[in-house]
Recover the amino acids of this structure.
């Protein structure tokens, strides 16, 4: 969700105004994704690198989590909220608020929206490796007795923050930057990527539809040839 600060600066407003506007966009996108039948939505709200921003901007972002992430948004849309990221770095009040929201929305089923807060992919993968090592040590195994085949892609995926969801089909980055910025690096190995110059506060419903329409025109091959995919699709249609 990139471009909040630049959107505000270009309008002669403080960067905080961009983050406030960005929150409203996030609410609209959540509601629109529910209507479209999206089952999993992940929003990159605050990276581990964002801790290096000016203290007042960080404080504004933490405050928005407390004031804007409320039950009403999730109850109204039957949406479950999850949180991925380094929980140890957040202020205690913010951490408790997010954990309470996770618990209070755990029974909602229309869609799962995950907020990546204090998150980076390198941190996540490093943590996964440490967790796997801890499990090996605490099940009385040694590296000499663990077969190489015991560590699979599934093993790693199940130790990532996103263990509860499938890998993304589509990644959208707003704001005109052409980079991933340490986000879901393992999970997006075969995701389709969509970049737009539109700043996040202006990413309205029509912009979301444009991204999805672009995605629908793509052929996802997962390493296969175009001919193989077309043959498989034709076979599937015939069976239907």
């Amino acid at each position: 969700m990139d471009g909040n600060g630049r959107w505000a600066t270009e309008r002669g407003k403080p960067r905080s105004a961009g983050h406030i506007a960005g929150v409203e966009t996030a609410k609209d996108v959540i509601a629109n994704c529910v209507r479209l039948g999206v089952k999993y939505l992940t929003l990159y709200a605050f990276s581990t690198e964002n801790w290096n921003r000016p203290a007042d901007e960080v404080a504004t972002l933490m405050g928005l989590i407390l004031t804007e992430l409320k039950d009403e948004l999730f109850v109204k849309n039957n949406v479950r909220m999850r949180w991925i990221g380094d929980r140890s770095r957040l202020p205690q009040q913010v951490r408790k608020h997010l954990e309470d929201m996770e618990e209070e929305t755990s029974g909602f089923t229309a869609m799962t929206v995950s907020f990546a807060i204090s998150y980076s992919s390198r941190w996540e993968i490093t943590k996964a490796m440490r967790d796997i090592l801890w499990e090996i040590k605490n099940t009385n195994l040694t590296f000499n007795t663990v077969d190489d085949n015991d560590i699979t892609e599934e093993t790693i995926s199940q130790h990532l923050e996103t263990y509860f969801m499938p890998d993304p089909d589509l990644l959208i980055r707003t704001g005109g930057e052409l980079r991933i910025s340490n986000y879901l690096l393992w999970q997006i190995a075969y995701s389709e990527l969509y970049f737009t110059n539109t700043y996040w506060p202006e990413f309205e419903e029509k912009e979301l539809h444009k991204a999805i329409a672009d995605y629908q025109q793509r052929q996802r091959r997962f390493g296969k040839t175009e001919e193989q995919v077309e043959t498989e699709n034709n076979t599937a249609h015939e069976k239907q």
Summary: DSSP finds nine helices and five strands in the chain.
